[in-house]
């Protein structure tokens, strides 16, 4: 067996660096091959069918299943060994989130199995094997991430690098497949809506991959086919979260960690009532807007324009609130003097890179809309609301990224134990020792019980004298007055100001968390004005703009969910 950990040396690190490079290149080539296969199926390339794509994905999932089973079996035999853990990776709330998405993904797989059974006469067997394999893959992967997301692998490092990176890109390909399938469905609905808005010059045949046979049970087929597309957003988020957690595991292979105490930061609802109330109002109103939008859009030209206007006005109001909250939080940070934590942390580094990288997707769409409004010759009234909306999207993500990245890099405020157990000692009448309640007791509104017992602060001198003088000293102790010095009062005042700042920051983080969840809902469930307003298609052309939207929209959707996850962490940390 390979040694668990060797002494750091140039000769030892060189092969490991090569293994990292080789494994990353293996993963990239694996992904590119699958990406081209997916693209070939999407454009109906000659000789490429959906069964070829699914066979490739099934093979990748089976290989990952074998690796995970091998890893779990080896970990079980070595469970008594003490292993290094990355305390920043695989947070409990992140595991709970991916479990929720995984459960909904399993429901999606069951719908696909039912869909295959109803159309089994004209569907390839791979379309029935795929959801079964995917369900097994999902169950085992979630268990693996719950148990081993924090691992820092120090044995069989070369083999493990290939296994983990294979898992990363397998999940990315499953994410790509889900995004493409969902986008094709949204595109077909979009083409039908544009006709009601008066854009009759856009005549493109619907891209239909429906089975060429009749369903055995019409009602069930309708439920399965419609329900699948409402569940895809959760499946998409599941795979992208799994790939990010596995990527952190890959980066941690062979890493040397400093052993220090990690302070737990549980989530608490106390003190964030205001932020939660405003956030829930935004969330509720957003759900109502999405429902009305999906009902009205495509019914008639007037109803579609009203739906777009309603969406833009609501989004502008929410984005203004988010920008204001973010600016207030950054101003509070400027007033504080706290150092940043620049220690090596793969999870935190990945969070920051994903925030900026995925924000570029919506920035691209926003700049496209701004240019379309400027260059278009005719401007329907509802399109003018798109201008402030697009500008605010750019500004809001800029501000929010600054707030989140600075928050996750700020060192946690550590309360000095000496301050917590502070005793104000006053000497009166020569040798009388007087003790006040601790700062912690004062802050919590509790005074120390008057039991007559005196803590031994100076065991060598004070306690000896207390024992010698007996009852007389105890009587003098009880009669002594409690005096607070000016410095202690000043400290209490500073602490009160700090607590107020922390409370404001926690409310802002809670509000932004719910706002990001709110803004994730519209594009994830088909409320996409970038498709429906039609102005961009006229300026850039239908096909070029649709390509831009289909490439950028998945990143924009992921940005909102990732921002919500990061803000949840900020709330716990603040």
Provide keyphrases for this structure:
two-stranded antiparallel sheet, 2 domains, globular, about 70% helix, about 575 residues
Topology overview:
Layout: H1 10-42, H2 50-77, H3 92-118, H4 126-148, H5 157-196, H6 218-251, H7 273-296, H8 301-335, H9 346-375, H10 386-409, H11 417-420, E1 425-428, E2 432-435, H12 439-443, H13 462-469, H14 471-479, H15 486-524, H16 529-532, H17 535-540, H18 542-573
Antiparallel strand pairs: 1-2
Helix pairs in contact: 1-2, 1-5, 2-4, 2-5, 3-4, 3-6, 4-6, 5-6, 7-8, 7-15, 8-10, 8-15, 9-10, 9-18, 10-18, 15-18
Main location: membrane
Subcellular location: Cell membrane
Protein name: OTOP1 protein
Task: Characterise this structure.
- The chain is an all-alpha fold.
- It folds into two domains: 227 residues, no CATH class; 223 residues, no CATH class.
- Helix content is 71%, strand content 1%.
- It contains 18 helices and two strands.
- It has a two-stranded antiparallel ribbon with strand order 1-2.
- A hairpin with a 3-residue loop joins strand 1 and strand 2.
- Helix 1 runs antiparallel to helix 2, helix 1 runs parallel beside helix 5 and helix 8 packs parallel to helix 10.
- The two termini are 44 Å apart.
- The N terminus is likely disordered.
In short:
This protein is 71% helix and 1% strand. It has helices at 10-42, 50-77, 92-118, 126-148, 157-196, 218-251, 273-296, 301-335, 346-375, 386-409, 417-420, 439-443, 462-469, 471-479, 486-524, 529-532, 535-540, 542-573, and strands spanning 425-428, 432-435.
């Amino acid at each position: 067996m390979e040694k668990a950990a060797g002494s750091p040396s140039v000769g030892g690190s060189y092969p490991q660096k090569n293994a990292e490079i080789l494994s990353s290149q293996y993963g990239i080539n694996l992904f590119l091959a699958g990406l081209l296969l997916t693209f070939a199926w999407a454009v109906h390339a000659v000789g490429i069918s959906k069964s070829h794509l699914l066979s490739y994905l099934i093979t990748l999932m089976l290989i990952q299943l074998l690796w995970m089973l091998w890893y779990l079996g080896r970990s079980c035999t070595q469970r008594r060994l003490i292993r290094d853990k990355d305390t920043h990776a695989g947070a409990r709330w992140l595991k709970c989130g991916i479990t929720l998405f995984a459960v909904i993904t399993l429901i999606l797989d069951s719908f696909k199995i039912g869909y295959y059974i109803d159309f089994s006469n004209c569907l390839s067997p791979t379309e029935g094997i795929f959801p079964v394999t995917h369900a097994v893959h999902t169950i085992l992967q979630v268990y693996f991430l719950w148990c081993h997301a924090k691992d820092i692998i120090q044995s069989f490092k070369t083999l493990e690098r290939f296994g983990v990176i294979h898992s990363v890109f397998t999940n990315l390909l499953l994410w790509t497949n889900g995004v493409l399938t969902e986008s094709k469905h949204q595109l077909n609905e979009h083409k039908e809506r544009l006709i009601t808005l008066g854009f009759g010059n856009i005549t493109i045949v619907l891209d239909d991959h429906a089975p060429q046979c009749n369903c055995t049970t019409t009602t069930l087929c309708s439920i399965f086919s419609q329900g699948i597309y409402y569940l895809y957003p959760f499946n998409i988020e599941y795979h992208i979260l799994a790939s990010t957690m596995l990527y952190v595991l890959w980066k941690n292979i062979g890493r040397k960690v400093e052993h220090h105490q990690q302070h737990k930061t549980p989530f608490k609802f106390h003190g964030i009532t205001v932020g939660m109330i405003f956030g829930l109002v935004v969330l509720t109103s957003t759900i109502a807007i999405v429902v009305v939008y999906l009902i009205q859009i495509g019914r008639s030209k007037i109803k579609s324009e009203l739906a777009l206007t309603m969406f833009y006005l609501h989004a502008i109001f929410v984005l203004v609130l988010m920008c204001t909250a973010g600016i207030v939080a950054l101003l509070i940070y400027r007033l504080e003097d706290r150092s940043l934590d620049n220690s090596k942390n793969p999870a935190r580094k990945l969070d920051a890179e994903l925030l900026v990288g995925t924000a570029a997707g919506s920035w691209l769409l926003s700049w496209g809309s701004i240019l379309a409004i400027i260059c278009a010759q005719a401007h329907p009234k509802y399109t003018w609301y798109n201008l402030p909306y697009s500008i605010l999207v750019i500004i809001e993500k800029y501000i929010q990224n600054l707030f989140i990245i600075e928050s996750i890099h700020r060192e946690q405020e550590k309360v000095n134990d000496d301050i917590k157990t502070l005793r104000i000692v006053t000497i009166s009448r020569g040798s009388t020792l007087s003790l006040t309640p601790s700062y912690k007791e004062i802050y919590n509104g509790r005074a120390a019980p008057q039991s007559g017992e005196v803590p031994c602060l100076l065991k060598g001198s004070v306690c000896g004298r207390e024992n010698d003088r007996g009852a007389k000293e105890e009587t003098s102790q009880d009669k002594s007055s409690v005096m607070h010095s000016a410095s202690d009062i000043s400290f209490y005042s500073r602490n009160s100001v700090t607590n107020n700042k922390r409370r404001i920051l926690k409310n802002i983080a809670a509000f932004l968390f719910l706002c990001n969840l709110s803004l994730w809902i519209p594009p994830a469930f088909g409320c996409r004005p970038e498709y429906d307003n039609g102005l961009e298609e006229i300026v850039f052309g239908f096909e070029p703009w649709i390509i831009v939207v289909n490439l950028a929209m998945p990143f924009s959707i992921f940005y909102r969910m990732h921002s919500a996850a990061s803000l949840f962490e900020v709330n716990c940390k603040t």
